[in-house]
Write a structure and sequence with these properties.
This protein has six helices and four strands, in the order αααααββαββ. It is mainly alpha-helical. The chain has a single domain, classed as TTHA0068-like (Hyaluronidase domain-like). Helix 4 packs antiparallel against helix 5.
């Protein structure tokens, strides 16, 4: 566990997903609230523990996905596009459904956001005109998010 672990533990306490780590579920809670940096931190805690494991690159891709939105929030369009591309590259190595997440749908979202950046000629921030996506693992109730799927 990292130095942020107690803060993250407090944040994700109460999340239940059976076999899925509460930090993984907490990532989606934060992502869907638009708390992209916090989502990054929550999952980074799990990623650091998983280094060397098969899912490490999966977590890295999710971290990069939210990192792209952090850059969009700061109007750094070039770095956002770069992180969308990196994240998509890692995700493309995983099956269409992984850790109960529809990876193929998440890859499609990467394409949508990259397309919006390209459409704007790298000068128009798509967050100014489009709401950020909501992403949920399949068949998992994330109690703190107020929604389930």
């Amino acid at each position: 566990m990292t130095h942020k672990s107690s803060r993250i533990k407090d944040l994700v306490s109460g999340l239940q997903g059976g076999a899925l780590d509460s930090r993984y579920l907490g990532y989606f809670v934060c992502l869907n609230r638009g708390e992209f940096y916090l989502a990054h931190e929550v999952l980074e805690d799990l990623w650091l523990e998983s280094r060397g494991a098969p899912e490490s690159d999966f977590y890295k891709a999710l971290i990069q996905f939210t990192g792209a939105f952090v850059h969009l929030q700061k109007n750094r369009l070039g770095p956002a596009a770069a992180l969308f591309r990196l994240s998509k590259g890692y995700l493309s190595r995983f099956p269409p459904l992984y850790h109960q997440l529809d990876v193929s749908e998440l890859i499609r979202l990467h394409d949508v956001w990259l397309g919006l950046l390209i459409q704007g000629g790298g000068q128009i921030n798509p967050l100014a005109t489009h709401p950020p996506p909501h992403v949920y693992p399949r068949d998992i109730e994330v109690a703190s998010s107020g929604t389930s799927r």
